[in-house]
Amino acid sequence: MNIILLGPPGAGKGTQAARLVERHGMRQLSTGDMLRAAVQAETPTGLKVKAIMESGGLVPDEIVSSLISDELVALPQTVGLIFDGYPRTEAQARQLDEILARHRRKIDRVIELAVDEDALVERITGRFTCAHCGAGYHEKFKLPRNTDPLMCDHCGSFDFKRRPDDNEQTVRTRMAEYRAKTAPILPFYEARGLVSRVNGMADIDEVTEEIEQVLGS
Ligand code: AMP
Q1: What gap in Å lies between CA 128 and CA 187, rounded to an integer?
Q2: Active site residue 13
Q3: How far apart are CA 112 and CA 197, in angstroms?
Q4: Ligand 1: centre distance to CA 9 (Å)
């Protein structure tokens, strides 16, 4: 099964994708993660997109679609895919169709995580991750068990980091981009009867269960 998780920044796409990977051995394809890795490694793509990402704008369609296309080459047909943060424009949705067709794959379901935008700003600006293992935390909703000093529950590291684009101003731009360019791709998939709406404001476990029900597992 190949699915798309669609929703504004902070809707929980990454969290839910990680759970699907764990439960079903699917593969998460996050263009945001790929781009951050490119920025970190200072590759030519990374250097090109750094400022765009810091501003909260969208990276050109060709760049993200070629990242996805490259990743797919090495993946066996039997591995189900979860697209997280891609496609984000109608052009990307069309490019994804072409890429998948080349691999004799198709999108089986699009899950829209519906959320209240005001709550998202609080969710996003409070989040941070373990710099060592990547475990996700939140200042208000999910602190590590040990807070003095702050220590990662999973690996015991004392190093944490925040995404540079998780500040309020950038978050507002990212949301405006979602409304203007990404939400309009829903009808593209609705016309094929592929969209299921899930309440992304519910508790993390409830959202996972709703997604599992949609996927019929
Ligand atoms: P994310 O981790 O999905 O929130 O993405 C972080 C940033 O990476 C976004 O604000 C964009 O600047 C860029 N980005 C990630 N995925 C895409 C995409 N599919 N199309 C355009 N820009 C993207």
Answers
A1: 33
A2: yes
A3: 5
A4: 9
For the whole model, what pTM was predicted?
Answer: 0.90
* Pocket around ligand 1 at a 6 A CB cut-off: 9, 31-32, 35, 52-53, 56-59, 64, 85-86, 88, 92, 165, 174
Amino acid at 191: A
d(CA 7, CA 163): 19
Q: How far is the CA of 179 from the centre of ligand 1 (A)?
A: 14
pLDDT tens, residue order, the chain (217 aa): 999 999 999 899 999 999 999 999 999 999 999 999 999 999 999 999 999 999 999 999 999 999 999 999 989 989 999 999 999 999 999 999 999 999 999 999 999 999 988 888 988 999 999 999 999 999 998 999 999 999 999 999 999 999 999 999 999 999 999 999 999 999 999 999 999 999 999 999 999 999 999 999 6
Instruction: Identify which of 84, 67, 89 has the alpha carbon closest to the alpha carbon of residue 3.
Output: 84
Residues in the chain: 217
